[in-house]
């Protein structure tokens, strides 16, 4: 029992810390073109599913934490107009409330007796499909962030940064934008 406790503590200490990750829907570094009203950048944020010790899930499971989108609204004079929308998501999910419980259905029967004067015994095990109790994570809370208008004066600058990504405007007209997304 002591050995199991030491192995469990050592295993939990080896778990990685929880990390936040961003996944971008559009490719980095390529020149892209979008029309008025189109989404030019989508960032999905997530984090490692926390375990009972506050560390990252050993199976690599994640839970969503947010969403950011940037839309192109057109150009007026030298100013290109964009709109930033965002959501913060709190799922409350952990490895404890996101893992189903699996109950094996096996039974073993034992019998013993004598045949004449000879003692005999035997056993048989019956296996059935397991019972699965599904996970019941809490209802996620989805909180919208304030919508932010971004006015980029192309006479003075050609880029802006959102959530650690630089959007470089190559060309903007009243109805379309040519741009690329970079890692600053």
Number of strands: 12
Distance between the termini: 52 Å
H and E string: HEEEEEEEEEEEE
Multimeric state: single chain
What portion of the residues fall into strands of 2 or more residues?
Answer: over 45%
| Tertiary shape | rod-shaped
Rg from C-alpha positions? 29 Å
Would you kindly provide a written description of the structure presented here, covering whatever features stand out?
- The chain is 7% helix and 58% strand.
- With 184 residues, the protein is mainly β.
- It has one domain.
- Strands 1, 3, 4, 5, 8 and 9 form a six-stranded antiparallel beta sheet that branches. Strands 2-12-11-10 form a four-stranded antiparallel beta sheet, with no helix packed on it. Strands 6-7 form a two-stranded antiparallel sheet.
- The radius of gyration is 29 Å and the shape is rod-shaped.
- The model has no long low-confidence stretch (mean pLDDT 90).
Record keyword descriptors for this entry:
184 residues, 1 helix, mainly beta, four-stranded antiparallel beta sheet, 12 strands, six-stranded antiparallel beta sheet, rod-shaped
How would you summarize what this structure contains?
7% of the residues lie in helices and 58% in strands. With 184 residues, it is mainly beta. Strands 1, 3, 4, 5, 8 and 9 form a 6-stranded antiparallel beta sheet that branches.
């Amino acid at each position: 029992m002591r050995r199991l406790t030491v192995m469990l503590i050592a295993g939990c200490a080896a778990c990685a810390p929880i990390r936040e990750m961003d996944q971008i829907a559009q490719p980095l570094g390529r020149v892209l073109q979008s029309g008025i009203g189109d989404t030019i950048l989508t960032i999905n944020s997530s984090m490692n599913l926390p375990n009972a010790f506050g560390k990252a899930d050993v199976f690599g499971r994640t839970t969503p934490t947010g969403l950011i989108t940037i839309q192109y609204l057109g150009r007026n004079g030298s100013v290109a107009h964009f709109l930033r929308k965002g959501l913060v998501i709190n799922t409350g999910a952990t490895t404890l409330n996101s893992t189903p419980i699996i109950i094996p259905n096996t039974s073993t029967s034992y019998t013993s007796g004598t045949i004449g004067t000879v003692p005999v015994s035997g056993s048989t095990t019956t296996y059935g499909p397991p019972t699965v109790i599904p996970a019941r994570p809490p209802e996620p809370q989805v909180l919208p962030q304030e919508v932010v208008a971004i006015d980029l004066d192309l006479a003075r600058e050609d880029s802006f940064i959102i959530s650690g990504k630089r959007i470089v405007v190559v060309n903007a007209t009243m109805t379309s934008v040519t741009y690329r997304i970079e890692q600053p």
